[in-house]
Structures are given as C-alpha cells and as structure tokens.
Amino acid sequence: MRLRDEDRATYTAALDDVIGSTEIQRRLARSGVKASQLRVLGLAEGPRVASTAEREYRSYLALRQRARGEASLMPSLSGPGRQQVYGAGLLPVLAVLTPVLAISAAALFLPLGYGLRLADSAPAVAGNLVQAGWISLGIGALAAVVGVLGLYRTASRHRGGAPKDRRDHGLTAELDAARAAWLRQLHEGIRSLLLQHLDQFPSPDAGGNGPGGNGPGGVGAGDDEAAVHSPRFTSPRYTGPDFGSPEASGPDIPTLRG
C-alpha cells in the first residue's frame, strides 16, 4: 500500500521515533547495528509496513476528506491506475470564449460597415455589417457581465465554505482520534519490523562468551588452568661474595721442617 505524498513525512517521523525509543536503542547497543541501517530498512519497507495499518489509514483519509470538503472518491492506494478526472465544464468555456469572439466580430464588422457607408458603396451590405457589429458588441458585453457575475458567485461560495477554523468540533475530534489510531498502528508495525531485523544479530555476550563469562573467552576454568601451569617467581636471595685483594693471602701456617 502506498501512502499519499503528504503522509510520507509522517511515516518518516514515526520511523525516527521508533528508532530513538529506549527499547530499540538498547538492542542497537547489544547487536552493534547502526541506527542508519535501521532507517534505510524502514524506508525501504515503507509500503509493507503501511499495509499493516491500512484499515486505520483508510478511515483517517475518509474523515480528512470530509473535513476538507473533498470528493468522497478515494484514490488508488496500490499505485497509479484508473482515476476519475473532472473537466472544466462547458459553461465556463463559453463564458470565456463568447465575449472574446463577440467583441472581435464587432471590432471587424463596425469599421467595415461604416467604411462602406462613407464610401457610398453597397449600402445594403454596409447596413448589414453595421447591424451585425452592434449585435455582436451587445452579445459580447452581455456575456462579459454574465461571466463576471458567475465568477463573483463562485468566489463567494468558496469564501462561505467551512474553513478549517470553522469545522465542526465533533468531526475534528473524530479526525484526531482516527489519526492517533493510525499512528499507533504504524508505530507498532515499524517496531515489529525493526525487532525482527535485530533478532538476526545476537548480542556479543550471548552464550557466556563475553567478558566475565565462563566460556572460552571469559574468566573461568581456562584461567585456573593457566594459573596452574604458569611459572611461579620468587624473589632471589643473594649472599655477598667474599672478595679480597689479589695480594691477600691466607693465615700463616707454620711448617715443620725435619
């Protein structure tokens, strides 16, 4: 399901809120995944996540269209397709073209008719041209007045429509409640997507392999075994050697001569 362009910013804001939540930040710290990776994933899976809140989103759109006075025709949420297109209508086109064509005809017929009349050539044709010119001028003026009145009426009707500040209070409260329900379901869908992705990255200390564990990388039986085989050093005990001078000799021992 595709969101409207004006609602995609709301989805991005909801994605950032979920990523910044305490639960997701704690999981990010354990898994070592970057927040930017989750944001790219959430934006790429936007249509799938939005489908989890499709019912709430459709209700919210219907109420928003009522509040804005839009047509009740819902656009296609699954992508571009056959949609109803409203034309400008025949009356507005005639209101614009009739004065222009009539005044143009008057600007052509009147000078030509009066020119023939002054030249005293073909008086019958000159009279018809002058008459057609004045009729065209009258039709153009009348069409211009009708067009101005229609434009004023249209502007007054739009000005008298219910603006945002004058909307019914009950409809406004219902619209706010529908938007809150959609955002709540959207947050839940984004949270489920991110947690499912983070489950693929176990925390580094899982299974007791982290610091402080009793596994191969922790401090446990391996340290005890290393302690048994580690050499033990004691401070050496030195005794001072007996040094004497080179000339020194031992004690005189009397010798017996025979």
Secondary-structure map:
Blueprint: H1 5-19, H2 22-31, H3 35-44, H4 46-51, H5 54-68, H6 90-118, H7 123-159, H8 169-198, H9 221-229
Oligomer: single chain
Uncertain runs are: 71-87, 206-258
What's the total helix number?
9
Distance between the termini: 131 Å
> What portion of residues belong to β-strands?
under 5%
Radius of gyration: 48 Å
Describe the main β-sheet briefly. Answer: none
Query: What's the SSE pattern?
Result: HHHHHHHHH
Overall pLDDT: 73
What portion of residues is helical?
A: 55-70%
Number of strands: 0
Principal-axes geometry comes out as rod-shaped
Q: What structural category arises from helix and sheet content?
A: mainly alpha
Q: Characteristics of this structure?
A:
single chain; 258 residues; mainly alpha; 9 helices; 62% helix; 0% strand; disordered C terminus
Task: Report on the architecture of this protein.
By secondary structure, this protein is mainly alpha-helical. It contains 9 helices and no strands. Helix 1 runs antiparallel to helix 3 (about 35-45), helix 2 packs parallel to helix 8 (about 170-200) and helix 5 (about 55-70) packs antiparallel against helix 8 (about 170-200). The longest helix has about 35 residues, at about 125-160. Residues about 70-85 and about 205-258 have low confidence and may be disordered.
